[in-house]
Amino acid sequence: MPWPIVGNTFQLPKNKPWIYFEEISKRMNAPVITYWIGRNPTVWINDAWAASEIMDKRAAIYASRPRMIVFGELSTGQTNLVSMYYGDRWRVHRKLTHMGVGLQHVRSYSGFQDNESKVVALDLLKTPDNYVMHFERYAASVVSIIGFGRRISTPSDPIITEVIAVMQRAGELNVPGTSFPMLLETFPILARFPNWMAPWKHGLGGGKGRGRNFYYALTEEAVRQNTHPECYSRKLWDEAPKYDLSNAEISSLTGNLFGAGSDTSSSTLITFVLACCAFPEALVKAHEELDRVVGPNRSPSLDDDLPYVRAFVKEVFRWRSVAIIGGQPHAPIADDVWNGYLIPKNTWVQGNVWAIHHHDREFPDPDRFCPDRYFKDHPLYRPFPNDKGYMTFGWGRRVCAGQGLAEQGTTLSVARLLWGFNIKKALDKSTGKEVAVDINAYTNGLNMRPQPFDCRWIPRSDEIRKTIEREGRQALEDLAQYDGETQYRMSTFYKQEKLIEGKVPANDEKRR
Ligand code: HEM
After folding, report:
1. Could you give the residue ranges of the DSSP H alpha helices within 395-461?
2. CATH number of 9-499
3. Residues 46-77: pLDDT tens digits?
4. What is the model's pLDDT at position 204?
5. Ligand 1 contact via 17 beta carbon (within 6 Å)
């Protein structure tokens, strides 16, 4: 029962509310539940079929976002596609985003995406213990080439360390819970206080768009240097007058490549490693398939016929999905009735991906990582409402705009790393025995990733090691055309901004 004014807010657990919503849903035997955050009903969909019926089949209705204080009004609000209400401006942003990462372009990125993943394999030979940093560099570099025509060559590049830290912090702050700033969703009035007297706002809304100016500056720099006129910044710059884009809009469009596309992609690869350590039996068939189809003298490519490896990728997406509550909530643009329940216009509707992907009706023995479950003749196979077999990228009109890029990159990387290495649990230094990994040790963010763990990367043969070295060196040569550095740093951006005054107009001023 919701309490007056505060609703159910204070019944929320400290961590991982998605597990709590899954439990309520099971206890009540209800695929969809309503949970009151303050005076707002939030609808939690805990079942694949209900999610598909509501957010996919009725996509034209569930196409908007609800009012969000923390992720919306105090952040990038109506200048960012991710939190934007459905309407003409959203359509413009979606179209402009497709110009960068739409399916028609994604295949043409496979060359440098593949090369960056070859560099990861090479890096893993040299410094395997830094695998997380290698993944972060890879993911950030791919979107940086797309966005700015410039690769990121070292894991210590501040673009990676700062941007990923900001994204993880944003992810942690945005988990529904009983602490600030998310309590502002329960008490929106507290968001009106100025920041100097409102520590509960965690500085949100008071930064005058530091991140925005940073991405705007990166965009402007790429256009000015013009070393890769085919990059997204250039395309966007040319389109800007036609759509009357403000600086804040330009920066949100290029910034989303990092914001939405780097932490998500690298976290997915860390989950892949955890699965390999915890379920070594799943690697046997992958290695057999890769040896048979690819062999040791080249690494796999997108054209190889590798059904088990493809199922492996699906299972990575399902088993521990990074956007564990489906990213941002949807909201209906009109009152809707589903199964006799009224879902009023603008209601907060959230797909609980954790519950959906762990429902034992669709995924028996759900915590077990088992790529075979995607083959129809396997005992764990069960029907699913969509052909892909997962809902990792959301639903309907708000489905992830970078899905094609993320799927392509994850496929390339997972296939190559399975082909190249035996990925195993770390050995205890004193006993020499394998150290157990915890498949439930995940961060609490909206984009979750495994807590740090050690592992071993053992090249599968000497021939494979040589191939990795040869391909890695060649990849670095091919990628050299994207070498370069930016003069900007997010952390010092205010300082930098002063230096370039006159070049970067005020944040919300229109660019003409
Ligand atoms: C493994 C990687 C990724 C995952 C799991 C992921 C997941 C998601 C999810 C769950 C949503 C919300 C969907 C919904 O509301 O129904 C979303 C939205 C979005 N994603 Fe991704 N994403 C990934 C990578 C990327 C990449 C690489 C980009 C771009 C470079 C990107 C750009 C976006 C954008 C712009 C939106 C907002 C779409 C809108 O509201 O209309 N994502 N993503």
Report:
1. 403-420
2. 1.10.630.10
3. 999 999 999 999 999 999 999 988 778 877 77
4. 74
5. no
